[in-house]
């Protein structure tokens, strides 16, 4: 608990320092000429991510508008269809299951519970393996299989934790 609080406090102190330095950076450095260029873009409003794995709807709309603009200039359109959205959702689900596996593995190590080396190797492989298929249907099948494997491993680790 104390470690979590100190990590959060350190993160907040870093953020505060960045904000203070950012406020001082509004004027050009001493001796530098003002070029009249626009300031760098900052994340605010619709661009803010609502969670670590989920962009806000406004950010998705903005990304689609950028894609449309790029299509108008290049003639190619990277339309994000339902299959791509489903793949994205399943990849986020896989990431959550993998985080749970890592957390369970860490808890087992902290409690010094003896874990079969084969099971430990399976967990390590499940948390680091990446889908290799490029065709959407095959990629989705690989991701679904990885989710099932990770859930089975998570259940096995949960049994060791109880």
Give a quick precis of the structure:
Residues 30-86 are annotated as: Disordered. The protein has 162 residues and is mainly α.
Throw out a few tags for this protein:
single chain; 162 residues; mainly alpha; 0% strand; elongated
How does this structure look, described?
- The protein is mainly alpha-helical and 162 residues long.
- The protein has a domain of 80 residues.
- 67% of the residues lie in helices and 0% in strands.
- It is built from five helices and no strands.
- The two termini are 21 Å apart.
- About 6% of the residues have low confidence.
- Keywords: Signal.
- Residue fraction in strands: under 5%
From the spread of the alpha carbons, the general shape counts as elongated
The largest sheet is: none
Mean pLDDT: 73
Helix content: 55-70%
What is the end-to-end distance?
Answer: 21 Å
Q: Structural class of the helix and strand makeup? A: mainly alpha
Low-confidence segments? 42-50
Radius of gyration: 23 Å
Assembly type of the chains comes to single chain
